[in-house]
Design brief:
Blueprint: H1 2-11, H2 25-35, E1 39-42, H3 45-50, E2 52-57, E3 63-67, H4 71-79
Antiparallel strand pairs: 1-2, 2-3
């Protein structure tokens, strides 16, 4: 479910990377920060079951749960 979601966001013109290396959440956030990612989507089993994703804004470390249908619009807000 993650790969089709990433493909849909890419078709919408967003740059999306999937971290396949795993590791702790802390190490994944450090990698995203090092890459300069403005936002991170957290998609665990719970989020996938609910059709949501946790959107974390890297600049201020705030996060919110977002319906997957609204992800593209929310990500564009972060990028403005």
């Amino acid at each position: 479910a993650v790969v089709p979601l990433a493909a849909r966001l890419r078709r919408g013109g967003l740059a999306v990377d999937i971290d396949h290396r795993g590791g702790s959440m802390k190490s994944q956030m450090k990698r995203a920060n090092k890459l300069g990612a403005p936002a991170v989507l957290i998609l665990g089993e719970d989020e996938l079951d609910r059709g949501t994703a946790t959107l974390r804004r890297m600049a201020d470390s705030t996060q919110e749960e977002v319906n997957q249908d609204q992800l593209e619009a929310k990500l564009r807000e972060v990028l403005e």
